[in-house]
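STRUCTURE:
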Protein backbone atom coordinates (compact mmCIF):
# COMPACT_ATOMS: atom_id res chain seq x y z
CA UNK A 1 0.00 0.00 0.00
CA UNK A 2 1.42 3.37 -1.05
CA UNK A 3 1.41 6.01 1.66
CA UNK A 4 0.24 9.37 0.24
CA UNK A 5 2.82 12.16 0.54
CA UNK A 6 2.43 14.59 3.40
CA UNK A 7 0.99 17.91 2.37
CA UNK A 8 2.85 21.18 2.80
CA UNK A 9 0.95 23.71 4.92
CA UNK A 10 1.78 27.37 5.51
CA UNK A 11 0.33 29.07 8.59
CA UNK A 12 0.36 32.85 8.22
CA UNK A 13 -1.27 34.63 11.16
CA UNK A 14 -1.66 38.40 11.33
CA UNK A 15 1.47 39.83 12.95
CA UNK A 16 1.31 41.92 16.13
CA UNK A 17 3.55 44.96 15.79
CA UNK A 18 6.01 45.29 18.73
CA UNK A 19 4.78 48.70 19.82
CA UNK A 20 2.37 47.85 22.63
CA UNK A 21 1.80 45.06 25.18
CA UNK A 22 0.23 41.75 24.22
CA UNK A 23 -3.44 41.98 25.18
CA UNK A 24 -6.03 39.19 25.65
CA UNK A 25 -6.98 39.55 21.96
CA UNK A 26 -3.35 39.07 20.95
CA UNK A 27 -2.92 36.11 23.29
CA UNK A 28 -6.02 34.43 21.89
CA UNK A 29 -4.72 34.62 18.34
CA UNK A 30 -1.22 33.53 19.30
CA UNK A 31 -2.37 30.54 21.36
CA UNK A 32 -4.82 29.53 18.64
CA UNK A 33 -2.03 29.56 16.07
CA UNK A 34 0.37 27.72 18.36
CA UNK A 35 -2.06 24.83 18.93
CA UNK A 36 -2.86 24.68 15.20
CA UNK A 37 0.85 24.54 14.36
CA UNK A 38 1.81 21.92 16.93
CA UNK A 39 -1.27 19.75 16.28
CA UNK A 40 -0.91 19.82 12.49
CA UNK A 41 2.84 19.04 12.54
CA UNK A 42 2.38 15.25 13.09
CA UNK A 43 0.10 15.12 10.02
CA UNK A 44 1.78 17.45 7.51
CA UNK A 45 4.88 19.50 6.78
CA UNK A 46 4.02 22.82 8.44
CA UNK A 47 5.69 26.22 8.17
CA UNK A 48 4.73 28.90 10.70
CA UNK A 49 5.58 32.22 9.04
CA UNK A 50 5.60 35.14 11.44
CA UNK A 51 8.04 37.84 10.42
CA UNK A 52 8.21 41.10 12.31
CA UNK A 53 10.84 42.33 9.86
CA UNK A 54 8.28 42.37 7.05
CA UNK A 55 5.92 44.73 8.88
CA UNK A 56 8.40 47.07 10.59
CA UNK A 57 8.14 49.37 7.55
CA UNK A 58 4.44 50.14 8.14
CA UNK A 59 3.70 53.63 9.39
CA UNK A 60 2.34 52.47 12.73
CA UNK A 61 5.81 51.07 13.52
CA UNK A 62 8.35 53.39 11.86
CA UNK A 63 6.14 56.37 12.70
CA UNK A 64 6.28 55.36 16.34
CA UNK A 65 10.05 54.97 16.18
CA UNK A 66 10.43 58.44 14.69
CA UNK A 67 8.14 59.84 17.39
CA UNK A 68 10.25 58.25 20.12
CA UNK A 69 13.50 59.64 18.70
CA UNK A 70 11.95 63.08 18.27
CA UNK A 71 10.33 63.32 21.70
CA UNK A 72 12.33 61.04 24.01
CA UNK A 73 15.89 61.23 22.73
CA UNK A 74 18.34 58.89 24.43
CA UNK A 75 15.89 56.97 26.61
CA UNK A 76 17.24 53.68 27.98
CA UNK A 77 14.44 51.38 26.82
CA UNK A 78 15.98 48.35 28.50
CA UNK A 79 14.67 49.78 31.78
CA UNK A 80 11.08 50.13 30.54
CA UNK A 81 8.29 47.59 30.91
CA UNK A 82 6.00 46.62 28.05
CA UNK A 83 3.31 48.76 29.68
CA UNK A 84 5.66 51.76 29.76
CA UNK A 85 6.38 51.40 26.05
CA UNK A 86 2.68 50.83 25.39
CA UNK A 87 1.86 54.12 27.13
CA UNK A 88 4.27 55.89 24.78
CA UNK A 89 2.54 54.25 21.82
CA UNK A 90 -0.87 55.43 23.02
CA UNK A 91 0.50 58.99 23.20
CA UNK A 92 1.92 58.68 19.69
CA UNK A 93 -1.38 57.43 18.23
CA UNK A 94 -3.26 60.27 19.94
CA UNK A 95 -1.25 62.82 17.94
CA UNK A 96 -3.29 64.19 15.04
CA UNK A 97 -0.27 65.14 12.94
CA UNK A 98 1.79 62.53 11.09
CA UNK A 99 5.27 63.00 9.68
CA UNK A 100 5.93 63.21 5.94
CA UNK A 101 7.12 60.14 4.07
CA UNK A 102 10.55 61.75 3.60
CA UNK A 103 10.99 61.90 7.38
CA UNK A 104 10.19 58.19 7.75
CA UNK A 105 12.18 57.02 4.73
CA UNK A 106 15.52 56.67 6.61
CA UNK A 107 13.80 54.37 9.10
CA UNK A 108 12.35 52.22 6.34
CA UNK A 109 15.72 52.11 4.59
CA UNK A 110 17.42 51.02 7.83
CA UNK A 111 14.93 48.16 8.17
CA UNK A 112 15.09 47.12 4.52
CA UNK A 113 18.84 47.30 4.05
CA UNK A 114 20.25 46.70 7.50
CA UNK A 115 17.65 44.78 9.48
CA UNK A 116 17.61 47.60 12.04
CA UNK A 117 15.10 47.54 14.90
CA UNK A 118 14.48 50.46 17.25
CA UNK A 119 15.60 49.80 20.86
CA UNK A 120 12.01 50.19 22.10
CA UNK A 121 10.77 47.38 19.86
CA UNK A 122 13.90 45.32 20.58
CA UNK A 123 12.97 45.54 24.25
CA UNK A 124 9.35 44.59 23.51
CA UNK A 125 10.34 41.57 21.44
CA UNK A 126 12.73 40.40 24.15
CA UNK A 127 9.91 40.61 26.70
CA UNK A 128 7.57 38.76 24.36
CA UNK A 129 10.11 35.97 23.89
CA UNK A 130 9.98 35.51 27.66
CA UNK A 131 6.18 35.31 27.56
CA UNK A 132 6.34 32.73 24.77
CA UNK A 133 8.72 30.61 26.84
CA UNK A 134 6.48 30.79 29.93
CA UNK A 135 3.44 29.82 27.84
CA UNK A 136 5.25 27.01 26.05
CA UNK A 137 4.59 28.55 22.64
CA UNK A 138 6.71 27.88 19.58
CA UNK A 139 8.89 30.92 18.85
CA UNK A 140 8.68 31.52 15.07
CA UNK A 141 11.64 33.93 15.16
CA UNK A 142 10.52 36.92 17.17
CA UNK A 143 14.00 38.43 17.35
CA UNK A 144 15.30 37.18 14.00
CA UNK A 145 15.81 39.20 10.84
CA UNK A 146 13.32 37.65 8.39
CA UNK A 147 12.95 39.91 5.35
CA UNK A 148 10.16 39.28 2.82
CA UNK A 149 11.02 37.53 -0.41
CA UNK A 150 10.11 40.46 -2.64
CA UNK A 151 10.93 44.15 -2.65
CA UNK A 152 7.90 46.42 -2.83
CA UNK A 153 8.41 47.23 -6.51
CA UNK A 154 8.98 43.53 -7.32
CA UNK A 155 5.70 42.59 -5.67
CA UNK A 156 3.83 45.28 -7.60
CA UNK A 157 5.39 44.16 -10.89
CA UNK A 158 4.54 40.53 -10.24
CA UNK A 159 0.88 41.29 -9.52
CA UNK A 160 0.70 43.74 -12.42
CA UNK A 161 1.80 40.93 -14.75
CA UNK A 162 -1.41 39.02 -13.90
CA UNK A 163 -3.62 42.10 -13.91
CA UNK A 164 -4.13 42.42 -10.15
CA UNK A 165 -2.68 45.89 -9.66
CA UNK A 166 -3.67 49.40 -10.69
CA UNK A 167 -0.37 51.29 -10.53
CA UNK A 168 -0.62 55.08 -10.78
CA UNK A 169 2.91 55.89 -9.63
CA UNK A 170 3.86 57.09 -13.11
CA UNK A 171 1.53 60.06 -12.64
CA UNK A 172 2.26 60.65 -8.94
CA UNK A 173 -0.62 58.52 -7.71
CA UNK A 174 -1.02 55.52 -5.38
CA UNK A 175 -1.00 51.79 -6.04
CA UNK A 176 -4.21 49.78 -5.74
CA UNK A 177 -4.78 46.07 -5.40
CA UNK A 178 -7.26 45.41 -8.22
CA UNK A 179 -9.56 42.41 -7.76
CA UNK A 180 -12.53 44.13 -9.41
CA UNK A 181 -12.83 41.22 -11.87
CA UNK A 182 -13.98 39.18 -8.88
CA UNK A 183 -16.50 41.81 -7.80
CA UNK A 184 -14.22 43.17 -5.06
CA UNK A 185 -13.43 46.87 -4.54
CA UNK A 186 -10.09 48.52 -5.28
CA UNK A 187 -7.86 48.65 -2.21
CA UNK A 188 -5.03 51.13 -1.91
CA UNK A 189 -1.85 49.40 -0.77
CA UNK A 190 0.75 52.15 -1.34
CA UNK A 191 0.07 55.86 -0.92
CA UNK A 192 1.01 58.44 -3.53
CA UNK A 193 4.09 59.35 -1.44
CA UNK A 194 5.25 55.74 -1.26
CA UNK A 195 3.99 54.46 2.10
CA UNK A 196 3.05 50.75 2.06
CA UNK A 197 0.25 49.51 4.32
CA UNK A 198 -0.06 46.19 6.12
CA UNK A 199 -1.67 44.48 3.12
CA UNK A 200 1.20 45.52 0.82
CA UNK A 201 3.67 44.01 3.30
CA UNK A 202 1.66 40.78 3.54
CA UNK A 203 1.75 40.49 -0.26
CA UNK A 204 5.54 41.03 -0.30
CA UNK A 205 5.90 38.18 2.16
CA UNK A 206 3.34 35.68 0.90
CA UNK A 207 3.29 36.03 -2.90
CA UNK A 208 6.72 34.36 -3.34
CA UNK A 209 6.01 31.73 -0.67
CA UNK A 210 2.56 30.32 -1.40
CA UNK A 211 3.28 28.50 -4.70
CA UNK A 212 5.37 26.01 -2.71
CA UNK A 213 2.47 24.96 -0.48
CA UNK A 214 -0.62 22.79 -0.89
CA UNK A 215 -2.61 24.70 1.72
CA UNK A 216 -2.22 28.23 3.09
CA UNK A 217 -4.02 29.19 6.30
CA UNK A 218 -4.56 32.89 7.00
CA UNK A 219 -5.43 33.59 10.65
CA UNK A 220 -6.77 37.09 11.38
CA UNK A 221 -9.23 39.06 13.48
CA UNK A 222 -12.67 39.92 12.02
CA UNK A 223 -11.85 43.63 11.73
CA UNK A 224 -9.43 42.74 8.91
CA UNK A 225 -11.94 40.58 7.09
CA UNK A 226 -12.18 42.72 3.93
CA UNK A 227 -8.41 42.84 3.47
CA UNK A 228 -8.07 39.11 4.09
CA UNK A 229 -10.79 38.30 1.59
CA UNK A 230 -8.70 40.19 -0.96
CA UNK A 231 -5.53 38.42 0.18
CA UNK A 232 -7.31 35.08 -0.05
CA UNK A 233 -8.41 35.81 -3.62
CA UNK A 234 -4.98 36.99 -4.79
CA UNK A 235 -3.03 34.13 -3.21
CA UNK A 236 -5.53 31.60 -4.53
CA UNK A 237 -4.64 32.60 -8.08
CA UNK A 238 -1.07 31.43 -7.42
CA UNK A 239 -1.98 27.78 -6.98
CA UNK A 240 -2.56 26.68 -3.37
CA UNK A 241 -5.79 26.13 -1.51
CA UNK A 242 -6.18 29.20 0.73
CA UNK A 243 -8.27 29.11 3.89
CA UNK A 244 -9.16 32.01 6.15
CA UNK A 245 -9.62 31.46 9.89
CA UNK A 246 -11.12 34.53 11.60
CA UNK A 247 -10.43 34.59 15.34
CA UNK A 248 -12.62 36.95 17.34
CA UNK A 249 -11.04 39.51 19.60
CA UNK A 250 -11.60 39.57 23.38
CA UNK A 251 -13.74 42.39 24.77
CA UNK A 252 -12.66 44.00 28.04
CA UNK A 253 -15.63 45.12 30.14
CA UNK A 254 -17.87 44.59 27.15
CA UNK A 255 -15.85 46.71 24.73
CA UNK A 256 -13.56 45.75 21.87
CA UNK A 257 -10.96 48.47 21.40
CA UNK A 258 -7.62 48.66 19.67
CA UNK A 259 -4.53 48.45 21.87
CA UNK A 260 -3.52 51.89 20.54
CA UNK A 261 -6.27 53.39 22.70
CA UNK A 262 -4.94 51.85 25.93
CA UNK A 263 -7.31 50.31 28.46
CA UNK A 264 -5.20 47.16 28.79
CA UNK A 265 -3.87 47.72 32.32
CA UNK A 266 -4.09 44.51 34.41
CA UNK A 267 -4.86 42.62 31.19
CA UNK A 268 -1.46 42.46 29.49
CA UNK A 269 0.33 39.15 28.93
CA UNK A 270 2.85 40.05 31.61
CA UNK A 271 0.13 40.93 34.13
CA UNK A 272 -1.78 37.71 33.43
CA UNK A 273 1.36 35.59 33.80
CA UNK A 274 2.24 37.29 37.08
CA UNK A 275 -1.29 36.72 38.37
CA UNK A 276 -1.15 33.06 37.33
CA UNK A 277 2.07 32.54 39.27
CA UNK A 278 0.42 34.09 42.32
CA UNK A 279 -2.55 31.73 41.89
CA UNK A 280 -0.41 28.63 42.05
CA UNK A 281 1.81 29.99 44.79
CA UNK A 282 -1.41 30.44 46.74
CA UNK A 283 -2.57 26.84 46.07
CA UNK A 284 -5.67 26.89 43.87
CA UNK A 285 -8.79 25.95 45.86
CA UNK A 286 -6.63 24.18 48.45
CA UNK A 287 -6.10 21.25 46.12
CA UNK A 288 -2.35 21.06 46.68
CA UNK A 289 -1.24 22.23 43.25
CA UNK A 290 1.92 24.27 43.64
CA UNK A 291 3.52 26.29 40.86
CA UNK A 292 6.78 24.34 41.02
CA UNK A 293 5.14 21.04 40.05
CA UNK A 294 1.76 21.00 38.37
CA UNK A 295 1.58 24.78 38.15
CA UNK A 296 3.83 25.35 35.14
CA UNK A 297 1.91 22.84 33.03
CA UNK A 298 -1.44 24.00 34.39
CA UNK A 299 -0.63 27.57 33.39
CA UNK A 300 0.10 26.53 29.80
CA UNK A 301 -2.86 24.17 29.48
CA UNK A 302 -5.18 26.47 31.42
CA UNK A 303 -4.41 29.43 29.16
CA UNK A 304 -5.31 27.31 26.14
CA UNK A 305 -8.48 25.99 27.75
CA UNK A 306 -9.59 29.55 28.42
CA UNK A 307 -8.55 31.43 25.28
CA UNK A 308 -9.49 28.63 22.87
CA UNK A 309 -12.19 26.37 24.35
CA UNK A 310 -13.94 28.81 26.70
CA UNK A 311 -13.85 31.97 24.57
CA UNK A 312 -14.30 30.08 21.30
CA UNK A 313 -13.84 31.55 17.83
CA UNK A 314 -16.26 34.44 18.37
CA UNK A 315 -15.91 37.68 20.30
CA UNK A 316 -19.03 37.98 22.43
CA UNK A 317 -17.56 37.04 25.83
CA UNK A 318 -15.67 39.65 27.82
CA UNK A 319 -12.41 38.70 29.48
CA UNK A 320 -12.89 37.31 32.99
CA UNK A 321 -10.07 36.76 35.46
CA UNK A 322 -12.19 34.30 37.46
CA UNK A 323 -12.83 32.06 34.47
CA UNK A 324 -9.15 32.09 33.57
CA UNK A 325 -8.28 31.01 37.12
CA UNK A 326 -10.96 28.30 36.92
CA UNK A 327 -9.48 26.99 33.68
CA UNK A 328 -6.10 26.69 35.36
CA UNK A 329 -7.66 24.70 38.16
CA UNK A 330 -9.33 22.41 35.60
CA UNK A 331 -6.00 22.11 33.79
CA UNK A 332 -4.21 21.05 36.97
CA UNK A 333 -6.79 18.30 37.52
CA UNK A 334 -6.56 17.14 33.91
CA UNK A 335 -2.80 16.88 34.26
CA UNK A 336 -3.17 14.90 37.46
CA UNK A 337 -5.52 12.44 35.74
CA UNK A 338 -3.27 12.29 32.69
CA UNK A 339 -0.32 11.06 34.75
CA UNK A 340 -2.11 7.79 35.32
CA UNK A 341 -2.99 7.33 31.65
CA UNK A 342 -0.94 5.41 29.14
CA UNK A 343 0.45 7.54 26.33
CA UNK A 344 -0.99 6.71 22.92
CA UNK A 345 1.26 5.48 20.16
CA UNK A 346 2.10 7.62 17.15
CA UNK A 347 -0.72 6.07 15.11
CA UNK A 348 -3.34 6.65 17.80
CA UNK A 349 -2.19 10.24 18.29
CA UNK A 350 -2.47 10.91 14.56
CA UNK A 351 -5.97 9.42 14.54
CA UNK A 352 -7.04 11.65 17.44
CA UNK A 353 -5.71 14.73 15.67
CA UNK A 354 -7.19 13.72 12.32
CA UNK A 355 -10.69 13.61 13.81
CA UNK A 356 -10.64 17.38 14.29
CA UNK A 357 -10.15 18.09 10.57
CA UNK A 358 -13.08 18.85 8.27
CA UNK A 359 -11.97 18.81 4.68
CA UNK A 360 -8.75 20.70 5.39
CA UNK A 361 -5.24 19.67 6.29
CA UNK A 362 -4.79 21.81 9.40
CA UNK A 363 -6.12 20.71 12.79
CA UNK A 364 -8.95 22.81 14.25
CA UNK A 365 -7.67 24.14 17.63
CA UNK A 366 -11.18 24.74 18.97
CA UNK A 367 -12.44 21.21 18.34
CA UNK A 368 -9.22 19.66 19.62
CA UNK A 369 -9.11 21.71 22.83
CA UNK A 370 -12.80 21.14 23.56
CA UNK A 371 -12.20 17.40 23.19
CA UNK A 372 -10.25 17.49 26.46
CA UNK A 373 -13.29 18.66 28.41
CA UNK A 374 -16.65 17.19 29.39
CA UNK A 375 -17.97 14.90 32.08
CA UNK A 376 -17.24 11.24 31.68
CA UNK A 377 -14.42 11.78 29.17
CA UNK A 378 -11.32 9.60 29.57
CA UNK A 379 -8.15 11.07 31.00
CA UNK A 380 -6.28 13.20 28.46
CA UNK A 381 -3.59 11.36 26.55
CA UNK A 382 -0.25 12.51 28.01
CA UNK A 383 1.35 12.28 24.57
CA UNK A 384 -1.24 14.67 23.14
CA UNK A 385 -0.81 17.12 26.01
CA UNK A 386 2.96 17.08 25.66
CA UNK A 387 2.93 17.46 21.87
CA UNK A 388 0.32 20.19 21.61
CA UNK A 389 -0.66 21.88 24.87
CA UNK A 390 2.38 22.05 27.19
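SEQUENCE:
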Amino acid sequence: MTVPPRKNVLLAPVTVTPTKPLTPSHLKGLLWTDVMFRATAPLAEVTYRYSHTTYHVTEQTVGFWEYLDRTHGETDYTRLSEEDIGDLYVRYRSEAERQDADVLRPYRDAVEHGGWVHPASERMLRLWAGHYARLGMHDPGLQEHQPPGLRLDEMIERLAAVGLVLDQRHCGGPVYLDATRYGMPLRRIVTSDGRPNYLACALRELVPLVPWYDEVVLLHDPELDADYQLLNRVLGTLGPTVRRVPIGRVPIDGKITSARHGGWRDHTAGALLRAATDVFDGDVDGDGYGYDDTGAGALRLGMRLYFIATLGPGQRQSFRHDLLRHCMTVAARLLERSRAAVAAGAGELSDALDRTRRGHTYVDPYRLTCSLLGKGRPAPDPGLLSAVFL
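REMARK: Strands lie at 8-13, 45-48, 165-167, 175-177, 187-190, 215-220, 241-246.
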